[in-house]
């Protein structure tokens, strides 16, 4: 099968198109012919030498932790999925490839009419945003501040917080303010003076803050949110510990992914893909992610 993989850690160029043996579905597993795979900072971190929890990196390593495609093999004991089913799912590594094998409980059915590129990028950012907002107990009546609101995770977090009844203030550069309004957030520019700008928008205060960028954003959150228990970061775990706020790690499950798909079908969760690359241009996709200014998500088109 064709895959994008790297044989050593390094810059985006280490990602090359390779021919590898296709995996086969074992007991309890499903093989998926991949149509598209999401690209995110997690993948660029793996490429530069970060060891993700729960997996060991081995060369040639195929990155990628979310995908959508068509079931083409089911292992012994699998019920609930059949050959030909259109699905989306997740695994820690290995999704920039024509075939992936996953346990059957890491898949959900793709709604008819959901484009492959959108299905492929829902899991990673969606499940992270969901985990974080649940930990912060965001719900009706809350005003929540979301840092890096125009990125992959931020885009999902804004919409989930809105769907769960909160008012959302989101940080982004000005070029993303209309985008944030379209998602239902009140936009605010990050950088010097952020605390005063947020106070001007929310005179009654901010109840919770979710950080997807780190550093100054966390310091600002501590000034703006009364309870440290309702401040969380997915990026800056060391600073979170020093400040006594929450360091949050994404939790993933098919049930959570199915809930996100349900919100998509109801029109409450919009997926924004701002860059599409064919598999052989995976390095270019990584360069775009590493710019730090992606709006929504980047996708590799494969099958
Ligand atoms: N702990 C976990 O389980 C977990 C899970 C998933 C992701 N993460 C981490 O979470 C972070 C966000 O992931 P992502 O996929 O959302 O990244 P992303 O899509 O690459 O984020 C890009 C966004 O960041 C914004 N941004 C850049 N500098 C900013 C600043 N100083 N203040 C506010 N916004 C800024 C950009 O907006 P402008 O273009 O408007 O500047 C852009 O929209 C990454 O570091 C990722 O590794 C952690």
TrEMBL record:
Its EC number is 1.-.-.-. GO terms for molecular function: oxidoreductase activity. Residues 10-300 form the Enoyl reductase (ER) domain. The keyword Transmembrane helix does not apply. CDD domains: MDR_like_2. Keywords: NADP, Oxidoreductase. The keyword NADP applies. This is NADP-dependent oxidoreductase. It comes from Paenibacillus residui.
